[in-house]
Amino acid sequence: MPKLRKQTLTLLLVTLLILLQFNWVSWPKAYANIYSCTASVLPHSVAPTSTTDFQFQINNTDLNTIRWIKVTRPSLNFRIGGYQVNGWSVNFTDITVTLREGALNPSESLSFIVQATSGSSQAPAANWTVEASDDPNGANPLSCSGDLGTEISGEAPDTTPPTIYNISLSNLTSNSITISWTTDEPATSTVYYGLDDNYGNEKSNPTPTLNHSIVLTNLSVDTAYHFTIESTDVAGNSGYSEDNTFLTPTLGSPVAPSVGFLTKKSLKQTEKTPPTIRISTVPNGPFKEAPKIEGEAEDNAGIFSIEYSTDDGRNWLPADKVDGLGGKKVSFEFTPQNLEDGNYITLARATDTSGNTADSNKVTLIIDQLPPIVGGNVVSIGPQVLEPSEQCVLVSLTGVDQKITLSAVGGPTSINLSAKDINNDKSAGSLFSLTKSADSGLWSGILSFKKPGTYNLTANSVDGAGNKLQRSLNTVFVSESPRVLGGKNNRPIEKARVALYYLEPDSNNWVVWDGAPYGQENPQVTDKEGNFKLFVPVGKYYLKVQAADYQTLVSDIFETKQSIPLITDLHLAETFKLKLGPIAVSLPSLSVQKINIETDLKLKTSLENKSLIEKEVPSFLLPSVGGGETSSLNLRGRPTIVTFVTTWAPPAKEQFSALTALQKNKDINVVPISVFESAAKIRVYSKISGYEINVLVDKDGETVEAFNLQNLPTHYFVDRKGIIKRVVVGVLSEKEILGKLVGL
Fold it and tell me: What sequence ranges are listed for the domain Fibronectin type-III (predicted)?
């Protein structure tokens, strides 16, 4: 038995030696404790609320290799946010940083960075804790000694960007504009601008200031520009405005100059010395009516004529009175007639007997009878007029430029629209500057929204006398652009082809909708985010979407009652794939997906508190182009439609046609009202268009605020008792109007 035990032990020892020889087994390694290490940190002092890269160095003064290091923040006043270290695996929290799977041999040093943010209050010095172990899991760690203290002292650094406010635009010409703003601290001035919100151009001034002004030059005529503002303070913090727009004016129609009753060709030139002329009375204004303006002119031979202009020399009229005409020295006077509210650059011109001319000094004549009132507006994309929803809300998409056109009285010299997201009090909002047409007198600008939301538009108008007026306009619901998505994870599909098909009424055939006349592309190819943008006019349509590796999608047929944007995301299913090892082959799909396109936009609005429904029709007494006056009291006893429409609005022709036919119906009251237009202008329009319609004239816009007029045309349906029962925006046919009057 002892012999057998001895043989067994011998066999076990031989087996163990063989296993050890081939490293098939190993004895557990015994780790010795680290008994000596030092550490240091820089800096030793930081400001409150500052983020600092702390430089650590740990020295291995032991005989064993360090394989685990842990750094702990000095106090609750610090929060760790990151690290920089090479050759180690790192885990970190806001309290500690732990280094593993590395080696710091005896007599070697390791440098690394721990990023931490200090608290908002000053605090005395406290030590970081640096621990080391030769165990990869940190058994029996040793706290290293050294200079590891850090205090929080001094003032907190400035991390607040400048606030940008009071953005204004001035001196707008066909090729230049001045953009001004203020900041709450000295900061630099930069304007980024371009044809869209990618900008591409910039102009800046590096001098810090509170009041900023940048002049943009070399702009294109009759062009919409986007711009945003950046101001950077001395601490390097940058503040930005929202995306804003302005529209440069056209050059205006050229007007041939006139020279009194005779042309220059009828004057025989005997010398070349021009006369001198001066306006001596400088009007202080503002005036309700134009004052008498006087002046003198001299010439070495004789003065032939004196004229004056109230539009900076585009048109000329003879002076009312000239004393000494034909002599070398004359005096003159004139009183401009029929001037409406506005600023008029006025000058005089003298022509001598040889045909030489000279202009006088210029004076600004300010006529101020009314405040600068803004009227109804029309929003469009190309020729396509965008009508609000049933809730009187305009619906738009992010990144789409839309033109807004409106009329105004009271001689405004500037009109800016501010757009404020009603659900975001922190946003400063966007500014859309309007430009006045020299030919039509209408104001136009570009609406563009970079972020989705519900925006209230406010018109801010200023006239030459300094009178300011604010008026609420439209509410605009801005949706994200619809996207083409694919697969179970709804990934955006880039380069998907989206085609809109239209039912052509005459041929009753489906054709690819021609978007070019409406300023849109069709078909469209989606961008990298899967986005496409389509504003669809009235009609019947369907969508077809194709993309590689996805089944074709065809929507149900949908019909639009008004121009609306499409906002429905389109989800494509992946095609079936045949897998051959590592290769997957997409099989052609004969199936077609069907999807419903949402066109009934049910939107909540902020206009409910201004609703006139179930209220008495606002009181008015207005003259008509047919003679006499009409009072709101005259409307009782019969169902009534009150329609605000102007001759300049694109829908005018279609709407006047329906109203003209309905005015012949003696069982109802049909009351068209035109604001900010004269009776003479409406008569000319009626004669040219052939519509014999009696329109009420509100030249001064007395009804605009009372009826909360925003869009054109707008219809108010009033019952026999004079109570408004419904408000409808957009063009209505004769049949639609009669249908809505039933029961009133």
Answer: 163-251
In 128-284, where do the E strands start and end? 129-133, 142-143, 149-152, 164-170, 177-194, 201-216, 224-232, 238-240, 244-247, 276-279
Q: Which CATH architecture has domain 373-479?
A: Sandwich (2.60)
pLDDT digits (tens, 9 = 90+) for 100-129: 999 999 999 999 999 999 998 999 999 999
Quick one: CATH architecture of 164-247? Sandwich (2.60)
Is residue 230 within 8 Å of 240, Cβ to Cβ?
yes
Q: How confident is the model at residue 432 (pLDDT cuts 50, 70, 90)?
A: very high
Q: Which two tokens stand for residue 681?
A: 């202008």
Query: What residue type is 265 in one-letter code?
Result: K
Instruction: At 339, list the tokens.
Output: 């001037």
Residue position matching structure tokens 């789409």: 400
Q: Contacts by 262-266 with C-beta closer than 8 Å and gap 24+?
A: 262/304, 262/305, 264/351, 264/355
Q: Dihedrals φ, ψ of 312, to 5°?
A: 60, 35
Do strands 342-352 and 357-359 pair parallel, antiparallel, or not at all (unpaired)?
antiparallel
- Phi and psi at 687, nearest 5°, equal -65, -45
In 488-633, beta strands by DSSP E: 491-492, 497-504, 509-512, 524-525, 535-536, 539-546, 553-555, 558-560, 564-565, 570-572, 577-580, 583-586, 593-595, 621-623, 629-631
Same fold, 164-247 and 373-479: yes
